[in-house]
Specification:
With 201 residues, this protein is mainly alpha-helical. The protein has nine helices and two strands, in the order ββααααααααα. It has a two-stranded antiparallel ribbon with strand order 1-2. β1 and β2 form a beta hairpin. α1 runs antiparallel to α2 and α2 packs across α3. It starts with 10 loop residues before the first strand and ends with a helix.
């Protein structure tokens, strides 16, 4: 369906009745963080995610564990997953975006480009709208500048460009993302670990 003609709908119809879904960007990002927790089992992550996503979450008790896993998949497909663009060949294998680490840059960029205060939009702006707006950010916004620096090649020394090389190295070092651990990449974990991949630079 065309994005600009799609009628907003936060209802998931099930055999046990309607579930009201809140897939706002902050909820989805909290779930992404949840999926990096080693202490939780896969099923505990599913249950915790549903508690955050389903407004009338008391109805979840009506569903079996197997059905809850299916529900999270259905919610993901309908309210979270977006059409992926063809992958652009990147210069660097290192990650260039982390929604948690880069939250201040993203906040400033949305304010700069759209006048949108993301703190005020918590619980309101859907994940899909957030991602579409993110992909529309101009090249002069802070987060897009930082992503370009992380993806930048360091030129080979030619006898005259030492100052340029040092400047790029310092910028890449300053904006480098920390190396993270996290739980195994199984099941839905794979989807949430690729949320950053949905955002183009």
């Amino acid at each position: 369906m065309n994005v600009i003609t799609e009628i907003p709908n936060n209802i998931l119809y099930t055999e046990k009745g309607k579930l009201k879904i809140n897939a706002s960007f902050d909820v989805v990002l909290e779930i992404q963080k949840l999926y990096t927790e080693d202490e939780l089992t896969d099923y505990e992550k599913v249950c915790a995610s549903l508690e955050m996503l389903v407004i009338n979450h008391w109805n979840l008790r009506l569903f079996s564990p197997e059905r809850k896993i299916e529900l999270l998949n259905e919610i993901t497909k309908k309210f979270i997953k977006v059409k992926r663009r063809p992958d652009v060949k990147r210069k660097s294998p290192c990650p260039i975006l982390d929604f948690e680490e880069d939250s201040d840059y993203i906040y400033a960029s949305f304010m700069q480009e759209y006048g949108i205060d993301l703190i005020d939009q918590q619980g309101k702006l859907s994940w899909k709208k957030f991602l579409w707006l993110f992909n529309g950010l101009g090249s002069d916004t802070k987060i897009k500048q930082v992503m370009r620096i992380r993806d930048m090649d360091i030129p080979k020394y030619n006898g005259k460009n030492m100052e340029q090389i040092q400047e790029i190295q310092e910028l890449k070092s300053y904006y480098a993302l920390p190396i993270k651990g996290g739980g195994g990449q199984t099941g839905l974990d794979l989807l949430f670990s690729t949320l950053e991949g949905m955002a183009k630079h």
